[in-house]
Design brief:
Layout: H1 4-18, E1 25-28, H2 38-45, E2 50-56, E3 59-64, E4 69-73, E5 79-83, E6 93-99, E7 102-107, E8 113-117, H3 119-127, H4 140-149, H5 154-159, H6 169-178, H7 192-211, E9 252-256, E10 259-263, H8 274-284
Helix pairs in contact: 1-7, 4-7, 6-7
Domain FPG-type: 235-269
Domain Formamidopyrimidine-DNA glycosylase catalytic: 2-112
Keywords: DNA damage, DNA repair, DNA-binding, Glycosidase, Hydrolase, Lyase, Metal-binding, Multifunctional enzyme, Zinc, Zinc-finger
Length: 285
């Protein structure tokens, strides 16, 4: 599933290609991917200029000249491709926006969606999201308060979009690893120092992933050499039974908060009490 770095990569690659350009046509192959009748969609979207793109958590907003916006959530399996009809991937496209002979293809929107909203409705949809990891308002003190307020495992905390927006399964694993924190460590046991280190590592991992183009493999356009570059830098995610790059211990995969969590039992055991660590080791045997 695309997370903050993937959506930020899309934002940065798409902005110079579609902003200031009118949408000349649209094709809807799957009506469930949009939220209004096709006729209304076409009327409200075609000939509208995209004035700005904005990322909020894992979503992307296409702001139209009319004041309305398109709210995109790719969910599991969704991705985008920008190019000509000849360059179009041989994949099923649910929604298409055209900009002359260039087209933006929305692919894999079986669970995801591209919804048309008024500006106020889009704001309401975004209001439920937690604070962005890069927000200036997310100080070490506020982050510490968020951690201490909830009785959650670190994995569950990272995945809760009402607390932090944009982090999903992949980067929650990578952040916990870099912070040396076990994904089952309880947030209410965090010290101020733990919170400061976790916040620093969270931003460091996400920043590195953005600069590397995220972990998704599908290119955004022909000649795109950025998208997917971070997949080679993954330390623990999706590396079960492979040696830790840091200590050589095999990476473990365990279901935590109903999601797969990958971690190094050696590098990430320091934040657990001896009793808790012993219990977890017993479960893993």
């Amino acid at each position: 599933m695309p997370e903050l770095p993937e959506m930020e990569t899309y934002l940065r690659l798409l902005t110079p290609r579609v902003t200031g350009r009118p949408i000349t046509d649209t094709i809807i192959e799957r009506e469930k991917s949009i939220n209004v009748p096709v006729q209304q969609w076409t009327r409200d979207v075609v000939q509208q200029t995209i004035v700005k793109l904005e990322r909020r958590g894992k979503t992307l907003l296409f702001h139209l000249q009319s004041g309305k916006c398109l709210l995109l959530h790719l969910m599991l399996g969704g991705w985008m491709f920008y190019g000509t009809e000849k360059e179009r991937p041989n994949r099923t496209v649910q929604v298409q926006l055209s900009f002359g002979d260039q087209h933006l293809y929305f692919i894999g929107l079986r669970l995801g969606y591209l919804h048309l909203h008024s500006a106020s409705a889009a704001e309401e949809k975004s209001a439920a999201l937690g604070i962005d990891p890069f927000s200036p308002q997310l100080t070490a003190e506020r982050f510490y308060e968020l951690l201490r307020r909830k009785r959650k495992t670190m994995k569950a905390f990272m995945l809760d979009q009402s607390l932090l927006s944009g982090i999903g399964n992949c980067y929650s694993d990578e952040i916990c690893f870099e912070a040396g924190m076990h994904p089952q460590f309880k947030t209410e046991n965090c010290s101020q120092g733990d919170a400061e280190k976790l916040l620093y590592m969270m931003r460091s991992v996400l920043r590195e992933a953005i600069l590397s183009g995220g972990y998704m493999d599908e290119p955004m356009f022909v000649g795109d050499t950025l998208t997917g570059g971070y997949s080679e830098n993954l330390r623990v995610h999706d590396r079960a039974d492979q040696p830790c790059h840091r200590c050589g211990t095999n990476i473990i995969m365990k279901e935590i908060a109903s999601r797969k969590a990958y971690f190094c039992p050696n590098c990430q055991s320091k934040k657990l009490s001896n009793r808790a660590a012993a219990g977890i080791r017993e479960e893993e045997q």
